[in-house]
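Q: Given only this backbone (69 positions), what sequence would you predict?
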Protein backbone atom coordinates (compact mmCIF):
# COMPACT_ATOMS: atom_id res chain seq x y z
CA UNK A 1 0.00 0.00 0.00
CA UNK A 2 1.43 3.33 -1.03
CA UNK A 3 1.47 6.18 1.40
CA UNK A 4 1.86 9.63 -0.06
CA UNK A 5 3.09 12.35 2.21
CA UNK A 6 0.72 15.20 2.89
CA UNK A 7 2.12 18.01 0.81
CA UNK A 8 -0.29 20.75 1.72
CA UNK A 9 -3.18 19.78 -0.49
CA UNK A 10 -4.17 16.35 0.62
CA UNK A 11 -7.76 15.21 0.19
CA UNK A 12 -8.16 15.76 3.89
CA UNK A 13 -7.17 19.40 3.67
CA UNK A 14 -9.34 19.98 0.64
CA UNK A 15 -12.33 18.60 2.46
CA UNK A 16 -11.47 20.50 5.56
CA UNK A 17 -11.20 23.90 3.93
CA UNK A 18 -14.37 23.26 2.02
CA UNK A 19 -16.36 22.46 5.11
CA UNK A 20 -14.91 25.12 7.29
CA UNK A 21 -16.03 27.78 4.89
CA UNK A 22 -19.58 26.76 4.30
CA UNK A 23 -22.58 25.08 5.73
CA UNK A 24 -22.36 26.79 9.09
CA UNK A 25 -26.05 27.52 9.18
CA UNK A 26 -27.85 25.43 11.73
CA UNK A 27 -30.59 23.37 10.05
CA UNK A 28 -32.57 23.34 13.24
CA UNK A 29 -32.80 26.97 14.29
CA UNK A 30 -31.34 28.71 11.24
CA UNK A 31 -28.54 30.40 13.16
CA UNK A 32 -25.65 31.44 10.93
CA UNK A 33 -22.51 30.56 12.86
CA UNK A 34 -20.24 32.78 10.81
CA UNK A 35 -17.41 32.61 13.33
CA UNK A 36 -17.72 28.92 13.89
CA UNK A 37 -16.19 25.99 12.12
CA UNK A 38 -16.45 22.29 11.75
CA UNK A 39 -14.16 20.52 14.14
CA UNK A 40 -12.31 17.69 12.50
CA UNK A 41 -11.10 14.57 14.21
CA UNK A 42 -9.15 12.00 12.29
CA UNK A 43 -9.15 8.36 13.16
CA UNK A 44 -7.76 5.65 10.96
CA UNK A 45 -9.27 5.92 7.52
CA UNK A 46 -11.95 8.45 8.31
CA UNK A 47 -12.53 12.03 9.29
CA UNK A 48 -15.29 12.99 11.63
CA UNK A 49 -16.62 16.50 11.58
CA UNK A 50 -18.66 18.05 14.32
CA UNK A 51 -20.41 21.36 14.47
CA UNK A 52 -22.09 22.65 17.59
CA UNK A 53 -24.67 25.34 17.13
CA UNK A 54 -23.96 28.09 19.66
CA UNK A 55 -27.55 29.19 19.57
CA UNK A 56 -29.55 26.02 20.23
CA UNK A 57 -26.81 23.49 20.97
CA UNK A 58 -27.71 21.23 18.10
CA UNK A 59 -24.79 19.03 17.12
CA UNK A 60 -24.26 17.93 13.57
CA UNK A 61 -21.88 15.16 12.67
CA UNK A 62 -20.46 14.04 9.41
CA UNK A 63 -18.09 11.24 8.64
CA UNK A 64 -15.93 11.00 5.58
CA UNK A 65 -14.06 7.92 4.60
CA UNK A 66 -10.65 8.50 3.09
CA UNK A 67 -9.48 6.76 -0.01
CA UNK A 68 -12.86 6.47 -1.65
CA UNK A 69 -12.52 8.98 -4.43
ZN1 LIG B 1 -29.20 25.93 16.09
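A: Predicted residues:
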Amino acid sequence: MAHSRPGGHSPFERLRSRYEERDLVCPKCGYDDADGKWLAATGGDRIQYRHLCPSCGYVRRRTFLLGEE
